[in-house]
Structure formats: C-alpha cells, structure tokens
Amino acid sequence: MAWYQKSPSGKYRGLYRGPDGKTRSAGTYPYWEQALAKAIDAEEAANKPGWRDPKAGGRAWGDWLDEWWPKRNVAPGTLRRDMSQVNNHIRKKWEKVPLANITRYEVKAWAAELGASGLSESSVYRIVSIFAASLSAAVDAEILSTNPAYRLKLPNGEKDIVRYFTRAQVDRFVDNTEAERDKALISLLAGTGLRWGEAVGLMPHRYNPVRRIIRVAEVWDTRTKQMRPYPKSRAIRDVPVPAWVAERLDPFAENARDRIFPVQLSLWRKTVWAPLDTGGRVHDLRHSYASWLLQSGMAISKVSLLLGHSSIAVTERYAHHGDLDFGDVLKALE
Questions:
Q1: Are 261 and 185 in contact (CB under 8 A)?
Q2: pLDDT tens digits, residue range 40-85?
Q3: CATH 1.10.443.10 residue window(s) in the chain
Q4: Domain 57-140's class?
Q5: Cα–Cα distance between 266 and 279 in angstroms, integer?
Q6: Model's pTM, two decimal places?
Q7: Class at the top of the CATH hierarchy for domain 167-333
Q8: CA angle 294-297-298, nearest 5°?
Q9: Residue ranges of the alpha helices (H) in 217-325?
C-alpha cells in the first residue's frame, strides 16, 4: 500500500513497496495529496507484468561483467581467450558505463572504431559478440529489457579461401608422408571429415573396427591440452570409416591405450604438413570430405549430420558442389 512521509523541509515524499519488497520513493512534492497520488501510480506500475527495478540498469557494465563471467558455460580455453579480448578492448570502453546507458548507436560506433584501429574483421566480430553476449545475459537476468547489441550486422571476416583436394591429391599427400602414423592421420582427416581436435582426441574404445564406425564423443582441446567431453556442436555422432582409412587406422587403434594420435597441431603442421606443399590447410581435408560427398549426390542434410554441424545453414557453404544409411556414404568415399 502506498503512503507519504513529511520531510524536515516541510515537503512530502511518496513511498511504495516494489515487487521485491523494497521501499521505493515516487518523488518529493509540496503537497501530501500529490505525493500520495504519485506513490499510488508508481505502485500500480510496479505490480504490472514485466516490471524491472529502475535502479538495476544503473549498474556499471564492469560490475555486471564480474557477476556474469564466472557463470558462462564455455570451454576453459575459450574463456581465457575471450578474457584477453575483454581486457584489451572491451573494458576500456564500457567498464564504467551504466548498462541502461548503452545504446545501439554507440555500440555500432565502437565497432567501427575497432575496425579503424587495424583489427581484422573476424577480431572485431568476436569482440563485439562477447560484449553482446554480456548484454543478452543482462536481459535474461531482467536487468535490461532489450539488448542494444542484438544482431548487429557486422562482417565476420570469413573470407579465407577454402581449398578442396581431390582423392588423387590426398593419395599423393599420404604417399609422400614418411611415418605410418602420419599417413593414418591424414587418411582419417580426409576420409571421415573429423575436425582436428576430434581426430587427435580419438580414443581406441570409440572406434569399432568390425563395423568400421567412429563415435565422436570427445575432442582434444589444443589450447588447454585436455580432453573435452563433447565436440563443437555438443552432439555425439557416429561416422563411418572407409576401407582405405581403416587399413591404416586399425594397427594404431589396436595397440593404443590412450589417444590414438597423441600429436600437437603446431608441431605436426610444421614437420609433417608443411613439407608436403599441399597449397592448403589441414582443415581443408575436412572441406574436401564434404565436397566429395556432395559431388556424389548425397543430400546436404546427411552431410551436415556427418560433419557434426549445429545447423544445416553451416553446411550450405558447400552447396555449390552439388536417416543415416552408411552404405552410400562409404560408396562415395571408396
């Protein structure tokens, strides 16, 4: 119930209780009738659905960051990388700015400033995405009603040239590789489309040599040098293994007690991949796998499942090349 209170100055302050039980002021007025009327109006507004503490948005972004950051559900390596972006680019702009004072116009202007400073498009995209995520969390916490950084149209920097290898080229890469384990790894990457972390995180019990199927259930985090319990899209999936891959994979899987391929990307790329002079990246083996399947006429929805993409929209980058029955998958890869 609203009420008023006379102050030492002789004026009247309207008071009411918010949905959170706290006593709040509706302002100070010369007459008690005005103070009470304003308090009644404020109380009615506070009891309507969607009410938010008018003072909550006055929190500085930096203060909200300290509360939100430990609750982020991301991998440790991602958390460390993102904190570097926060410390280097986000704090100095938004540390002391009240959440309610952040506008869409200012966020867009800040993104333009980041780009003008010499940062790449992908870096700007990542920095702004982290900031936008913090504001989305503030909306979820009912501190803000809207996210001023929601769906800003920024270039994501994905302009790198994707190269596709033919089967003959991959065979040549394998033939020109000295160590048998490295031959097996190249074959695995090209013949199953696994990501690097999925391939070098492959445990022997996840590979069924009889059925020739790999269950992708963990990944090796190259930053933390630890296993993570699920792949990038957080969906466990099964992937068939072509005979030409199984022929090289089986001997190492049979004798492995831990990871079948205990190698580090930076060293392997320098000592094994670079000397092959492929003209492409290790990840292009995964692109090639997708292109081979699509060129064979396989539905893009099936290719998306095999690649472990979170959405078919991600797989559509391969669309110009053209439930899960593994028969036609293996036929396309043999």
A1: yes
A2: 998 888 887 766 666 667 889 999 999 999 988 877 778 888 999 9
A3: 167-333
A4: mainly alpha
A5: 17
A6: 0.56
A7: mainly alpha
A8: 65
A9: 243-255, 265-268, 284-295, 300-307, 312-315
